Amino acid sequence: MTESTVRLADLASVVRSKNAGPFVLTLDVFFRNREIFRKVRDAGVITRARLSELYGVAENDILEVTFFEPADALKISIKRWVSSAAPGDTDVLGAQQHVPLMSLSLKLQM
Amino acid sequence: MLDTVDELRILSPTAILGYGFPAESLAEGMASEPHAIAVDAGSTDGGPYFLGIQPGEGGGKLAQFAQMIDADLRPLLRAALEAQIPLIIGSAGGAGGNLHLAGIALLTRAIAKQEGLKFRMALIQAEIDKSLVKERLRQERVTPLGPVPELSPEDVDRSVRIVAQMGVEPFVRALEEGAQVIVAGRASDPSMFAALPILWGFDKGLSIHMGKILECGAIAAEPGSGGDVILGTIRPDHFLVEPMNPDRRCTVRSVAAHSLYEAADPWRLSEPGGVVDLRGVAFAQDTDRRVRVSGSKFVEDPVYRVKLEGAELVGYRTICIAGVRDPSALSHLDEMLEAARARTAEQFGDPARAQWELHFRVYGRDGVMGPLEAETSLPHEVGLLIEAIGSTQEQATSICLFVHALILHYGFPGRTSTAGNLAFPLSPQDIPVGPVHRFNIYHLMEVDDPLVHFPIQMVEVGDD
Known about the structure:
Distance between the termini of chain B: 29 Å
Largest interface: A-B, 45 and 44 residues
Strand order of the largest sheet of chain B: 12-13-9-8-1-2-3-7-4-19
Shape of chain A: elongated
Number of helices of chain B: 14
Radius of gyration of chain B: 25 Å
Oligomer: heterodimer
C-alpha cells in the first residue's frame, strides 16, 4: 500500500448540500463503496478543524461531523451564516454550498 | 376496524402537493390497493415568506399555486374516495397556518362540488396563540432548536404568526373519528404517513421512519424525482419502499441516502414527542426495485415538545438586475458598490435609523456562496443583483433606483467607458418584489398534551 493524495469528489458518487431547517446547512457525501467509506472514516482526516478552514467559518459553527455506514455516507452540518431567505442570503435552499468539500484533499493508504 | 392485519400500504404521490405526478404512476399505485394516500404539502424550504404572508398579499402568485395544487388534489381526491381510503394532507398551503389551511379547505370544497364528491373532512389547525408561547417562555419551557438565539417575548410579538409542527396524534384522532379526508396545518413531515400504521398498532419507530422516506415522493428512488409516486408497505418488523414508475427503482443506497436527507444528525430523527433511533437500522435489497428497512426504534422523550416556527416582517424589497462587462469597471467593482452604499447613507440617512438595507450579489464571483466563497478570480463578466429593502415598498424602490444610477455613472480612476458601467437586461430596471420576512422563531416548546393545541374540526363536505 502506498500513500496517495486524492480529492474527496473522486471517492464519492454524491456530494450535496441542503438546509436542515432554516438555520443549519447539511452536507452529505456518499462514498463509492464501503471499502472507500471505511478508509476515509478510519483515516480520521476529516475533522472540524479542516472543515472550518475549508469553509472559512469558526470551528464551533461546524455542528456535526458523522459517518453513517448504512449509506456509506458522511454528514457534516454547519451553522448557516444567515438564516434561510433572511436579508443577504445567497442560497435559500442551501443547495449549492457543497463545492469546497469536493476539492478537499485527503491522504489515504491506497 | 381494528382487526389485525399483516401489512399496511401507504401511497405517497409527490414530494409536495402541487409538484405533480404521472397519471400512470398513480394508477399503478392504486392497483397495489393502498390503505391510505398521504401527501406533504409544505416545508420551510421556500423561506419565511409563505409563513409571514398576509391575506391579499402575493396576488397572482397564490392563484398559480392554487392551480398547481388543484391539478394534484383533484385526481387524489377522486382516487381515494373511489377506493374508500383516507387522503391525508399535512402542512397545508406551504406554511401550515390557519390562513393556508383555509385556502386548501376552500379548494377541496370547490373540487368536491365540481366533481360531485361527498366525504367527511377533518381540518386540523396548527397555529399557536402568541400568549401561550409567552406563558411557556415565562415557565422556561421553550428552548432554541439548534444554533438559534434564545426566544424573547418581543420576538413572539414581532412574528406575523406562529405555527407548531403536530405529531401523529391529531391525525390518528381524526382517522378514529372517521375522517375520509384530512387537511392539516403544519405537521412534522413523516406524521401524515405514519398515522394510519400507528393507529393500526404497527411499530412507531418503523412507521415514522417509513414516513420520513415517503415524504418526498420518489426522491428516495433512482433516478430520483419529487414529482412521482412511491409506495411504503409496513409489516410487524420491517417496512418496504418501492417506486410506482417502472423506470425507477429503490436501492439500498437511494433509500439509506434519503434517511439522512435534510436531517442534521443521521442517527437520530427528532420528531414530536421523541426520536427515531437509527443505530440498529438495516437496509436490504428485497427485490430489484424494492428495499426492506428494519431496526428503526422510537425512543420517547420525557416531555412532549413541538417545533415552533415563526416569521417576522423585515420590510419591502425592490431589486435591479445588471451585468458588468468592461474589464476596468470589473476591477473597480467593490469600490463602486461601497461608494454607492456610502452615498445612499448620506441621501437616505443611517440605515439602522432610517430602516433600510442594501445587499449586492455578484454572480460570477461570489453570488452563490457569499462570505463562504474561497475562489477570488474574476471572470470576464459578472451579473449584479442590487437588492434594496425599505420600511415601505416606495422607499425600497427609491433606494434601488438611486443605487443603480450611482453605479451606472460612477467615475472610477482610469475609466474609459464613460457612458455607463452597467448593462440592464430589463425595463423598468427596478422591480418591486413585495414583503421580506425572516424566520425569527425556530424553537422547541413543551406541551402537556400532543392533541390540545391542534384542534380538529369535522365537516361534512358535499351535503349542502
